[in-house]
Known about the structure:
It is built from seven helices and no strands. By secondary structure, the protein is mostly helical. The longest helix is centred in the C-terminal third of the chain and has 25 residues, at 123-147. The relative contact order is 0.18.
Amino acid sequence: xxxxxxxxxxxxxxxxxxxxxxxxxxxxxxxxxxxxxxxxxxxxxxxxxxxxxxxxxxxxxxxxxxxxxxxxxxxxxxxxxxxxxxxxxxxxxxxxxxxxxxxxxxxxxxxxxxxxxxxxxxxxxxxxxxxxxxxxxxxxxxxxxxxxxxxxxxxxxxxxxxxxxxxxxxxxxxxxxxxxx
Length: 181
């Protein structure tokens, strides 16, 4: 039997529990490739330059987060992106700009987070999630730490996120539509 034959629930919970807050490196993880920058931004926002201006940052961040509004996100993730991650993106945009490595890392983490909670219906996607989770969780912890989120709130978020990852690994099969004679 391969290691993947072990129930995915055990793996997902193990990955989350193995990343308890005290063991997380405070720096943003270097395990991501620069991916995004201003790509995917609307032409209007793409012309804006990072100037340290919070109004510019607000426009750029809104444009980036709007890319995920077409997806049916779990309420936990939608609230997280709006309440906390938006602030992390704003901060990095104002301080470092949209051409910085930190900006690219945060956008990559955003995409990875959204993808991580979507249903995984094939073995390849499940394996990809297991490879992705440790680095993603480190990056999320570091991002929240930089915002000074209270530990209890952070812990509650990660406990619920672990449940979403288990659900993503074991999506409910779609019930067949009732056939009416």
